[in-house]
UniProtKB/TrEMBL annotation:
Locations listed in the record: Cell inner membrane
Record's signal peptide: none
PROSITE patterns: ABC_TRANSPORTER_1, ABC_TRANSPORTER_2
Pfam families to which the protein is assigned, alphabetical: ABC_tran, oligo_HPY
Protein name: ABC-type dipeptide transporter
Major subcellular site: membrane
SUPFAM superfamilies on file: P-loop containing nucleoside triphosphate hydrolases
Keywords recorded for this protein, A-Z: ATP-binding, Cell membrane, Membrane, Nucleotide-binding, Transport
Protein's organism: Salinicola endophyticus
């Protein structure tokens, strides 16, 4: 049984006169010790999905349908009181902006001890010992000195290490890291990626990494979900998805990477912009930006513009694309014709 199971999850924001769907029918499984990536442009629904997994959606956002199970236990119907027993203890979140996560008027030690004592009855001495241990685990220099410092006295990388240490304090099974390397310099990013990899191995920790950075996803994760306009458009083993992308959107994201081109060569950004939740196109939401739709025949173009594609198996991954589905159909027909040819 998977540690975490998400089935057909949809998240909506109910506003006066409109209901906006930010996440639509997302499903995945996460095994113990597994690292899963969620990638896509801003507005794809990645962070909303992450917040929904730990029930941190602020009104008017809410889970409209679907299931979230942790070791078989259904979480979506839990009361807020019961969620407090899950959040932090079983599932923890590392937020995108570590400075905004930390309270500016409390020292690092005060905040970390507060996190511990909210869930466990501990003496001040034992709480301090556990806090120092976790700061040492995340590689923070001079942890005893850092306990007495305020967030503004720390660098961005140090703040992120403190936030990760806070997430690890209660020894959770799952950590959701939302853009963990954003706004960090390249060296600090590399150190943080190495730290997360080491923590997953030593703690048998399951990790969900939300990012727009494919390089981070490639280094950290074994499997990846590619999201666009609230839906999963491709999923599969990270290596296969990045080396052999099946969906036109995944291909466009990889083609836009600067390292794909020689120095001074022009870049190839994804044309257009992602749709806002309230004005998403019918059919495949990516079709206004898709280069394959232009080359498609009239029947296929009508399908792209009118019918939302379902996820289908393709080259070891799953992809939601009518173009790929048509190619698979043609290959199956051709294979059957070759197989049926009489032998000489």
């Amino acid at each position: 049984m998977a540690l975490l199971e998400v089935e057909d999850l949809s998240v909506r924001f109910t506003l006066p006169g409109a209901t906006l769907e930010a996440v639509a029918g997302v499903s995945f499984r996460l095994g113990r010790g597994e690292c899963l990536g969620i990638v896509g442009e801003s507005g794809a629904g990645k962070s909303v999905l992450g917040f929904s997994l730990v029930n941190l959606l602020a009104p008017p956002g809410h889970i409209a349908s679907g299931r979230i199970r942790l070791e078989g236990r259904e979480l979506t119907a839990l009361s807020e009181r019961r969620w407090r027993g899950i959040r932090g203890r079983r599932m923890a979140m590392v937020f995108q902006d570590p400075r905004a996560t930390l309270n500016p008027v409390l020292t690092v030690g005060q905040q970390m001890r507060e996190t511990l004592r909210a869930h466990r009855r501990l003496s001040r001495r034992l709480a301090r010992k556990m806090v120092l241990h976790q700061l040492h685990q995340v590689g923070l220099d001079e942890p005893e000195r850092q306990l007495e410092r305020y967030p503004h006295q720390l660098s961005g990388g140090q703040c992120q290490r403190v936030v990760i240490a806070m997430a690890l304090l209660l020894d959770p099974d799952v950590i959701i890291a939302d853009e963990p390397t954003t706004a960090l310099d390249v060296t600090t990013q590399a150190e943080l990626v190495a730290l997360l990899i080491a923590l997953c191995r030593t703690h048998d920790l399951s990790l969900i990494v939300i990012s727009h950075d494919l390089a981070v996803i490639q280094q950290l994760t074994q499997r990846v979900l590619v999201m666009y306009a609230g839906r999963v458009v491709e999923s599969g083993p990270t290596r296969e998805v990045i080396n052999d992308p099946q969906h036109p959107y995944t291909q466009a994201l990889i083609d836009a990477l600067p390292q794909m081109y020689p120095p001074r060569a022009p870049l190839r950004p994804v044309p257009g912009s992602p749709p806002a939740p309230g004005v998403r196109p019918t059919g495949c939401a990516f079709h206004p930006r898709c280069r394959y739709r232009v080359a498609a025949d009239d029947d296929l173009r009508r399908r792209c513009e009118g019918d939302p594609p379902a996820l289908i198996p393709s080259s070891g991954s799953e992809v939601a694309c009518h173009w790929v589905a048509q190619l698979i159909d043609h290959e199956m027909i051709h294979s059957a014709q070759v197989h049926d040819e009489p032998l000489d």
